[in-house]
Amino acid sequence: MDAIYLRQSVDKKDSISIETQLEKCLKESNGKYMVFSDKGFSGKDTNRPQFQKMMKLIKEGKINRIIVYRLDRFSRSIADFSALWQVLSANGVEFISVNERFDTSTPIGRAMLYIIMSFAQLERETIAERIRDNYFSRLEKGIWPGGPAPYGFDIIKKNIQGKNFSVLSENENAANVKEIFDLYSSEKVSLGEIGKYMRQKGDNNLTWNNLSVSRIIKCAEYAVCTSEFYYYLISQSISIKSSFDCFDGKSGGILCKKTFAVSFHKGIVDADTWIKCNEKIKKNSAIKNTGRGKYSFLSGMLKCGKCMRTVKIINSSGKLYLFCSGRTNGHLCKCDIKCDIKVIEKHVLKTAENILKSCVFQPDKPICNDEISKKIQRLIDIMCDCPAENVDLINERIKQLCKMKEKSNNPINIEIDFEGLDLENKKRIFRKLIKQIVVEQEKAIIYWNF
Ligand SMILES: [Zn+2]
Fold it and tell me: Beta-strand (E) ranges in 188-250?
């Protein structure tokens, strides 16, 4: 039995109508299928009723394949996806994504799955940034320039001189923000511990981990603007668009691209605590960046072919060397590695690129809102709640309607630029893709994860 999974979020920006998704998915199915459709749910987590229903059937062994229109319909989070993927593989379920043109019954399909998920996340981050750029001029007036509100705030409309503008307004999570800062300002508490604490608290608004907590700490919107904060911003070479008088100890401000303006919301965290926390986070990340893994995105994956210990990358007057510090009976390992890490890196990137080149993407078609689409939509809405014996009938009708709609495909190739990624993102992707690299005297063997 195939499971066709459809999702449309409330957010109009990412909307591909449910019926368009279904139409595309049906082409992949060989006839026996069930449809699961979550409308008005975001893909940021798996807390979706029909999705959960489908996962239950998977665990019961009733599903062989999942078909989705696009990967992000299934999950938008790499962490979630990896967890889900384990459930799927454990139950022998194959995964087909129509848009990305692959299925996971092939090793290449599995590799692409990881790569595409990683890039999808990057792309979302870039889009968010672009939106910010567009609304840059609003920022200077203290108006929220666009994009989602930081955790602890809602975006509300405020009438300013006869016009409605978006501004931030604290919500019930503001108390959590304050607590996070209070915790982190104490010497001993780490980002990870706060993440754990928030998970235990059961707040599902964010995926709580080091990264999400550090993002909160770095978010300048929380700070109460005082004269002290003004001088701190200047010391960080941030350009300030509001006059010194605006830093009155009441309002919060907005920071975007090294530009700050006092805004209309109240600050949540006093300037002292905010500065203390940000100094701490800077100090800690400085230690991290000079530590392990700064020379290559393959650090930590390299193993010595002789003693199977981790091979380190050492920088000696600008040139990188591989070095095994393993010892047997007190003597250094005699592996004598001569491989060049740069050559290994190049080979890894080239291989990953070649995998992607075989991947064909289809552009999204604009949604046509004709009568047929509406009919299909209505049927899908009905199907979610109707008794099982009627599902086949409705499916049959939907199939007919889909056939009536004209279909056209214009495949395009997309190019993904691995070289353009920064070190952290390269690491993020290749840790998923590579199990380990065994290095011998003059050769390296790459064990891919697919
Ligand atoms: Zn060794």
Answer: 239-240
> Sign (positive/negative) of CA torsion 261, 169, 123, 430?
positive
Strand partners for 413 = 360
Ligand 1 (ion): residues with CB under 5 Å are: 304, 306-307, 324, 326, 333, 335
Asked if 241 and 342 sit in the same domain, the reply is no
Which residue segment(s) compose the domain that 102 sits in? 2-126+366-407
Q: What are the tens digits of pLDDT across the range 16-28?
A: 788 888 988 998 8
Domain presence at residue 414: no
In a domain, 378, yes or no: yes
Active site residue 9: yes
Give residue 311's Cα distance to chain centre.
Answer: 30
| Ligand 1 centroid – CA 350 distance (Å) | 27
Give the model's pLDDT for residue 314. 86
Active-site residue, selected from the candidate residues 9, 75, 97, 263: 9
Q: Which of 81-95, 302-316, 346-360 has the lowest mean pLDDT?
A: 346-360
- Give the model's pLDDT for residue 252: 95
Among all chains, which residue has been given the structure tokens 């078909």? 67
- Whether residue 274 is found in the same domain as residue 306: no
CA of 310 to the centre of ligand 1 (A): 8
Domain endpoint, select from 236, 264, 290? 290
Instruction: Please count the structural domains in the chain.
Output: 3
Q: Ligand 1: distance of its center to the CA of 325 in Å?
A: 7
